[in-house]
Amino acid sequence: MSSHLQPASSPIVEDDAFIESMLADASIPTLIMSLVHITGDVSFLRGSIRPKTPQMGEVQGGLTEEEKASVRKTALTVLKAFRDNGCKLPPPPSEEVVREMMNFLVGTEVPADYMPLVLEELALDGKDSRVPAWRKEVPDALKRDYHVVVIGAGMSGLLSAMRLKEAGISFTVFEKNDSVGGTWYENRYPGCRVDIPNHFYSYSFYPNHDWNEYFSRQPELAAYFERFAQDQGLAEKIHYNTEVVSAKFDEASGIWSIAVRESGGAIRTVLANAVISAVGQLNRPMTPKIPGQETFKGVQVHTGAWPKGLDLTGKRVAVIGTGASAFQIVPELAKIAGELTVFQRSPVWMFPNPDYHATVGESKKWMLKHVPFYARWYRFLMFWPGSGIALNRWRIDPAWPHPERAVCEANDQERIHLTAWISDQVGDDPELLKKVIPQYPVGGKRMLQDNGSWLRALKQPNVELVTEAPKAFDETGVIGQDGRHYPVDVIVYATGFHANKFLWPMEIVGRGGVKLNEFWGDEPRAYLGITVPGFPNLFCLYGPGTNLAHAGSIIFNSECQVRYSVACIKSLIEGGYRQMDVKPAVYGEFNDRLAKELSTLVWSHPSVNNWYKNSKGQVVNTSPWALSDYWKWTRSPEVEDYEWR
């Protein structure tokens, strides 16, 4: 049993009054799951108290206060008896009962094709079933002689390193920064935080029961990945301040030759049997070209490259962009800037999330640590609303009569609901209201969330929202499209990243001297988002067509992709092969299906201009698949999908 996946990380030893106080803020549906485990009594699932299907982040299932109080009273009795009996659990529930528990918790029938995935995620047996397992005996010396280079020590790179270590395969990690964490090391701007619930935005096998916020800020996330690297003993394998410049495949030997630039500027070459690219998508800041940039005499900074020690107190600040990073930084800057001008090309849809900045109480941390299986079921409660089951609300209905505002009836209802929520926040300012209601269908761009802080910030007397992009800069400020001059001291680019330049700026050269960037052009594709024909033994994590805009956590996707990539490498070693190359027909068929599926979803709507699209208007970045499908496809490679040499 994994030490991190035990039913509870600590026994219950506290007195009755303390336990009662800890139950006050418990998720009652989750608590009922624990009661079934502790007592073996399935009648908890068959009474009159039944949760409703949860919305994103909602953990009480719509239960009344009377219903919650009743469960707490019962739970207190059960937990006291459990404590007094030495915290001994009865035999585990059968799979049939577990299925009933799933359905109860989420207030609906969990589809049969989701069951294997959910059982693996729950890990009720305490085992991490994603640990690499060899299909046949392989000498340790053979594993050690096989060398894998992992590019990047962010979330996916660290995960790759851990799984390779578990498999006994030799590896080296190259990281361009001076620490681990990737995105959560580089993005240090004020207000930076995750927008997926933290108890799901974490490795499935390495939970953190001490998150201080439901949507943690950058420092706590960076610390999580630093701690993970230390706990797994990965530090000695990571070369910091070392950037991969290029990788070239030699067909005769089946070896990749990787050029790396060290901190002093020297270039050296490293050889590898396989390469895992874990460079991510959102790590190369994109700064728009605006006339006069070079003449501005103040400070210019991108949110993705925020310098340490930058103090904007009392400054006149311009923020360009109103996407995800702007939603987080603007409320913080509004508190300290003398004047804040926000330049918006178009407003974005947001959904209400009252817990977005909320702290996790000590009672909730105690429940996660002490009550058996509470943490596992709580994670499932976070997982389910984002599993892709609600994707149809973003599916284009060709018969829908109002495509100018929505893609289907459910999408239109979502628009009405979100418009009403925004109106409740700023309805007292008709001019501002007109500026913040989007025209495109809900879901067409990255969905943002707000607890009211964004809209409140825009109403502050020191904040002005300009509904156009800047026309130019001069020495002292920004010039608007109408010629108005905005004097500023600092320009902040909240303009995103080169998300569709996968593996850029590295030069990747495959068979026949083909360069990956030229092979892709403006239409990057990969089989399962991972492998590309002509580039044997190269595995892309968070590759084309794998961004999650509708569901889930990118960590979930990474666990799928790393499992697949390491399984491929194991197959190479077990079979004595030097190369595996995805068949062009397999690659083509998958990407035809991908393009067809994407064309049915809101991201492809002609009125939408988003960063998921390339210059031709094709969506190349996002995944349209249900999490259960992608999980199933990436459990292990199909031998017939590849050419083996």
TrEMBL record:
It comes from the Bacteria. Keywords: FAD, Flavoprotein, Monooxygenase, Oxidoreductase. SUPFAM superfamilies: FAD/NAD(P)-binding domain. InterPro entries: FAD-bind_Monooxygenase_sf, FAD/NAD-bd_sf, Flavin_mOase-like. Pfam families: FMO-like (PF00743). The keyword Oxidoreductase applies. Coiled coil: none annotated. The keyword Oxidoreductase applies. One of its GO terms (molecular function) is NADP binding. This is 4-hydroxyacetophenone monooxygenase. It comes from Pandoraea captiosa.
